[in-house]
Amino acid sequence: MVNISFIGLDLFLVGELDKKYHQLICAQFGISSADLLVSSFDSFVYNEGHEQTSFNLLIRVECDRKFAQKEEKIAQTLLKISEEFSIHAQVYFIYFDGKSVYSRINPSYPRFIESSIEEEGEVPYDENQEIYTGNMFEKFDEEHPEDAVGSFESEVEETTSYNIFQNFKK
Question: What one-character DSSP code corresponds to residue 147?
């Protein structure tokens, strides 16, 4: 198992980066696609109080100690990839004993989601289709007049006309 986290990079850019370079990174490690996870966080990077997000990127690689001999080549690959997404980048490795990894994989589901709405394409825009501007709750309002929007108008007027400063002395 290898987990690579991109800290200080837009969440959606990390998804694009993974889509584009996942197989290359797996080849560098010599692992299957299922053994690489890429993580992103809604994170910011700061230096002396100044935001550095997308300017200074931190790439954290968490992997088994057995990959230590490949560290320099993998770091160079990640630094090269990062040129598309940030001005500066640093890669650091955190190693663990592969025997210390435990998993639970539910056999009733596929191991990974393999498509998304974006990949399936957008719904084509029909220029002739008119936008409905009527009351979409008209039938409900007729069946439940006590809950219709108009029944609350008097309450709203009374509430909004209340002077919040009436108890303060001049």
Answer: G
Backbone φ and ψ for 3, nearest 5 degrees, come out as -120, 125
Cβ–Cβ < 8 Å for 92, 75: no
- Residue with the two structure tokens 């996870």: 37
Q: pLDDT tens, 35-53?
A: 999 999 888 899 999 998 8
The two structure tokens encoding residue 56 = 């200074």
CB 49 within 8 A of CB 60: no
Distance CA 121, CA 77 (A): 31
* Size (the chain), residues: 170
Do residues 39 and 4 make contact, with C-beta atoms less than 8 angstroms apart? yes
Spatial CB neighbours of 54, under 8 Å, sequence gap ≥ 6: 8, 9, 10, 13, 85, 86, 87
Q: Record the tokens describing residue 115, joined without a space.
A: 């498509």
CB proximity list for 144: less than 8 A, separation 6 or greater: none
Band of pLDDT at residue 164, cut at 50, 70 and 90: low
